[in-house]
Amino acid sequence: MGIALEVRNVTKIYGSGENAVVAVNDVSFSVAEGEFVALVGPSGSGKTTLLAMLAGLLYPTQGNIYIDGQDLAKMDDAQRTAFRRQRIGFTFQANNLMPYLTARENVELMMRLNGGCKSECSRMAVELLTRLGLGHRLNNLPRQLSGGEQQRVAIARALIHNPTLVLADEPTASLDTERAYQVVETFADLIHGHRRAGIMVTHDLRMCIYVDRVIQMQDGRIVRILSQRDEIDELASAKRQRTKTTAVAEVTAASSAPDGQFPR
Amino acid sequence: MGAYLAFKETWRSRGRFLLVSLLVALLTALVLFIAGLAEGLGRGNIEYLSNLDADLIAYQAEAQILIAASRLPRGTLQDIERVPGVKAAGPIEFSRVSIILPGTTPQGQPRKPLDVSLIQVEPGRPGEPPVRFGRQLQNRRGKEAIIDSLVARRAGLSVGDEFTIRSLQGTREEFYTLRVVGITTSQQYAIQPSIIVPLLTGDQIKPKPVVEDRPSSDISSNIIAIKLDLPEDPAEARAFRELMKRRLESQVKKIQVVDIRTAYENTPGYSAQKGTLDTQRYFALVIGVLVLGGFFQIQALQKVAQIGVLKAIGTPNRAIIAASLVQITTVTAFGVFIGTVITLSLALALPVGVPIVFAPQTVFIALVSLLLIGPLGGLLSIRYSVSVEPLTALGLAQ
Question: Which of chain A's residues have a Cβ under 8 Å away from the Cβ of B394?
């Protein structure tokens, strides 16, 4: 398995002097092709800032990020924009889709951005959406789709152009539990099936049952990396059981934020 | 890519964009009607002077280029004709009379007399307009007239017809009968269509505050139209005109000589009227810029998240700008098209005599201005869209 993403000693500091805030502190890791990684941690732990740097939306203060062996630091803004649309797939927490484009057109958008959409692109979009269970929703506008369907369209858009790296920012944040599982499972299947590198930022540890590795962040640093299946499943199921047993405990946990559990 | 996004959004939100287009259509109608009114009133005031087949116009020196205040005796005409470089000169006298219209209104009332400008000229000299139908004036004392096509339409006259003029002579109303020998076009003066009569005939007809027992033998006029032996080269012709103005003023006593443009720009009310209507037109355009600017700015504010996502997935700024420009231009152009159709349809239904004229050049300038207000108003929203950070998609930019 080749390395799709390599993060070397990346630090991000906002501001300077006394007002300096270290958002990401000397983080290093790599993600292989076909590997799906969850980036977890409490709010303010630096995972979204890290995701923004991986996407080339923010410049690291120190360190380097390599995607497909190319150093993002050596690219200017225009090159990063082009790199993003060619090599990175994105899904966001909300406002993922263009409200004036149908499901199929939203997926085709990435191909259009990358040089046009002929009949082949349209066929690929239809195939991918059908595989995601949206074959009957191709010509629906986002407002006519449920939250889960919208996220699945966003996943299709993130994968249609065969990117090296797929980034997902809280893809289950606005979904109910059942739909959240469906969406992440689909995401994981596609990442594995298409042999793309995938990184998902999430608060919801239950979703980790579908990932290959969990990178846990706190205060800008990586505090733990779980790569054994049983460790990951234990983390996810512990959270799942907690959810089922006591909602009151969840609220309490939110204030104390114990290790391994990051209630929203 | 930009055009694709623009058309998809415009089509899928067509109700909203149609409302904005209708607003542009109303502004277009307003601007075109004001432009048409300015053109119509302007023409009504100066048409005769601006179409005069002459190079210079002589006024009485103390008259401050006001036709009504200017009086030039016959001797001045002869002095002007003697100046080398003058090809021909013709006296012109202006007054107002009414044409008695035959028949009755549908309500059985006598028809209201038609007020016209009475323009006295010497047959065959500068000042007599060319006819479209019929013949030019021939007899210095003939009971004949060339009428403007507006008079022909409103009074129902054609070549060979006779008509009656009512004129106030002292305290009495007098009636004179003239025959139409020719019909000319575009000869309004003082917002009224005109009839052109021989100078001596007109001297009897024109209204007089006091009727003299023995009319003066010296027939004076308000102005004298001067035709020059102009060189063919336009630059030389301009220089020669300037030279002749100075030469005429130095060689002929008590006259002021101006070119045609200066003459009609000094017609009473013309500049003030034009200025007022132009101000209204510019205001309508400014309102258009602000309304469209406001709409597209609000739309850009509502689309910050969408624009952030578009940028995050790698949409270049040029595509965002193109999308905004295509959308703004399409909405504006559609509105201008609808507005033009509405305006021209309404204009066809206007009764004869309403001083609204859609001159191609004026309409073209108005339409270009209207087409520019969209992009101009949208500049702010485009600038704002370009400034949206892709980090917005991740909630990291405010």
Answer: 48, 51-52, 57, 92, 169
